[in-house]
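Quick one: co-fold with magnesium ion.
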Amino acid sequence: KNISDKIAAGEVIERPVSIVKELLENSIDSGADTISVEIKNGGKTFIRVTDNGCGIEADQVETAFLRHATSKIETVADLTSISSLGFRGEALASVAAVTQTTLITRPEAEKTGRRLLINGSEVVENVPVGCPHGTTIIVTDLFYNTPARRQFLKSDSAESGMIIDLMSEMALAYTDIKIQFINNGNVLFATAGDSSLKKTIMTVYRQREYDDLADVDFTTPGFTVTGCISRPSLSRSTRRDQIFFVNGRIVKSKVIEKGLSEAYKERLFKGRYPVAFLFLETDPASVDVNIHPNKKEVRFHDDKAVELAVKEAVIDAL
Ligand code: ADP
Ligand code: MG
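Sure, here it is.
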């Protein structure tokens, strides 16, 4: 059982950022409005995610770590939809298989909470504990029982860079949740959770000139495009600050990039790129996402329509 757990875990848990993503998505699914994520050493030695969500009932804490144990049946039925979070009830089992995991949790209605300690899928402690309502998961010593995998990890700063990118994107996608992010003891950002995209961008990216980004708010048959873009006076030499969401999910998309550059054509010098945080909403049936949870590729059934919608939305905003 242990070996198959480890093999399966390899598919989901490639690196620290995969763990942070799964834990953060669970916290979002829990209905929390406040979430804190702390990492150390690129997440290799320490990851802690705390939320004030629904918590887990005492008799469910061990079940949550079993493979294919999920309380989110509706989400699973809708696996192909781009909007579904979660991972078929495999995330916690996979994380626990390759780390030392501590779970501290209490539903708001319960007086006492529960603390569960798991070392490489073995439950070594399951005891009552006093704690705030919500859930904390602490993951230490990634791949401690699979040294070969540990060697494939990149440097601490490369691993933390990936987590910083993920945290930034998630903060933008969930502006209604207060998200705090701590890296090696430094608070990198703490969002207000007041649903303001501009304010969240300022908090997360800390670029003074982003205060002047233009708001995009455009609807055309089949599409709604919202977000913030730079005016032609501000541009970048890379696409680093171009972040796209389709139906709430972060994606990479040449088609959206094309729509953007079409809109800025003649307004920007060659080799310069606009800053763009764009949210596209469209019929989920007109979009294919790669089902693999760690990939971000998106395919539209009608590329030209998407390109045009983005182009028109941007021109409208400028
Ligand atoms: P999935 O998210 O696909 O259901 P996971 O392995 O990520 O599978 O989580 C297993 C179960 O543990 C979830 O279905 C949920 O019931 C519970 N759970 C995990 N994290 C949390 C959390 N932060 N708050 C409340 N419940 C949680
Ligand atoms: Mg999950």
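If it helps, Residues 156-173 form the longest helix (18 residues).
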